[in-house]
Amino acid sequence: MQIQAAVLYAPNTPFVLETLTLDDPQAGEVRVRIAACGVCHSDYHLVTGTTRHPLPVVCGHEGAGVVEAVGAGVTRIQPGDHVVLNWAPACGDCYYCRHGKPNLCATFTDPIWAGTMLDGTTRLHRLDGEPVYAYCGLAAFADHVVVPEQSCVKISREVPLLAASLVGCAVATGVGAALYTANVHPGESVVVIGCGGVGLNSLQGAALCGANPIIAVDTNLTKMRLAREFGATHTLYSNEDTIGDIRALTDGRGADYVIEAVGLPHLQELALAAARPGGTIVLAGLSPMGSATNLPGAILTREEKTVKGSYYGSVDSIRDFPLLLDLYSAGKLKLAELISQTYRLDQINEAFETMMGGGVARGVIVF
After folding, report:
1. Closest Cα to residue 282, out of 198, 178, 169, 172?
2. I need a labelling partner for 223 at 20 to 30 A (CA). Which of 71, 162, 217, 361 fits?
3. CATH number of the structural domain 174-311
4. Is it true that the peptide bond before 322 is cis, omega within 30 degrees of 0?
């Protein structure tokens, strides 16, 4: 079939709206009609070239939609199901899946970074037959996708797909960073550095855990106002006094947990300084490939600080996506409030320009 998709041909060039061909789903695969896809900074890393990926590529990894067709052997998903797409699918049988870390599944790692399906081929092609690659194995900046069955998480049809789409990245990553990676307990102090999509959801996650105080750090006044709505008890404008301000709010010690939600080395170093002795630093933001962060071993050893990476919020998508949507339905998790602006697919370059200006919590492409 022919579809409309936003294609990136080279770094530092705009997305091009183009007609592509999409193959039928093969064994173990599912075709989904996309309803909505969030605009995430991780996609923009391909535009800047800080994330290297085969090109041309269709980005978009925070999507939800309706299943239209399934390939042979698909048993868990059927046509008509409403699904959230999962960019870290799990095979269920590799070492990591069997040891409770499906977000680190080894089976899908290589093909996802290659932009292909498990068999090494693509389902997307230009009209001349040349392959087009899929970012995160999803390629959701398109009106239809073909993905592995494991990339589909069935959800209730009662949940609006526009809100549900955000669970596929920002919500899972941010809430999971507090809930699962950090494992915050009631009354513990949390600092969140960066109040974009992941940061705002880290604040929500900390609030769900009962943390206090919850301190948001940013340089964008709009995002700092949003931080209050998403659970922050205090907001700090990042400057040379930030560490002193954090200590003043935590009895002079520093925070029990510091979640860095941007992925910049100097902010990761700030996170180390903001954590108390014995505290934990969670790196939830995606850093540019090849970047390096100075986290001195002498400080880590003498102050027993722990640094943890958080990939996809350490979630189990099959278990946690429905859980997060249940919290949303119960009024305990904000999803609709995250959506600052919606766009058509042909407005995708405008959507990224607005995102980089820092004035939105989340922009969403609506089909």
Report:
1. 178
2. 162
3. 3.40.50.720
4. no
User: CA-CA distance, 201 to 197, in Å (whole number)?
Assistant: 6
- 306, β-bridge pairs: 280
Query: 258-316, pLDDT tens digit by residue?
Result: 999 999 999 999 999 999 999 999 999 988 888 899 999 999 999 999 999 999 999 99
Q: What is the DSSP letter of 263?
A: -
pLDDT of residue 358: 79
Three-state secondary-structure class, residue 283: strand
Kindly report, residue by residue over 325-367, the tens digit of the pLDDT: 999 999 999 999 999 999 999 999 999 999 988 777 899 999 9
Do 253 and 247 touch, CB atoms closer than 8 A? Answer: yes
The residues near 248 (Cβ < 8 Å, ≥ 6 apart) are none
CB neighbour list of residue 263: distance below 8 Å, 6 or more residues apart:
283, 285, 286, 287, 288
Give me 33's structure tokens. 């009609």
Domain ranges of the chain: 2-168+335-366, 174-311
* SS3 readout for 65-112: EEEEEECCCCCCCCCCCEEEECCCCCCCCCHHHHCCCHHHCHHHHHHH
DSSP 311: S
Instruction: Tell me the CATH number of domain 2-168+335-366, given options 3.40.50.880, 3.60.10.10, 3.90.180.10, 3.40.30.10.
Output: 3.90.180.10
Q: What pLDDT score does 359 carry? A: 73
* DSSP secondary structure letter of residue 358: T
Q: What are 351's two structure tokens?
A: 């959507």
Question: Mean pLDDT score of the chain, rounded to an integer?
Answer: 96
Joined together, the tokens standing for residue 296 give 């001195």
CB 170 within 8 A of CB 313: no
CA atoms within 13 A on the CB side of 71: 15
Could you give the CA distance from residue 206 to residue 214 in angstroms, rounded to a whole number? 7
**pTM of the model as a whole:** 0.94
Return the pLDDT at 334: 95
Spatial distance between the Cα atoms of 249 and 309, rounded to a whole number of angstroms: 25
Q: In whole angstroms, what is the distance from residue 178 CA to residue 313 CA?
A: 8
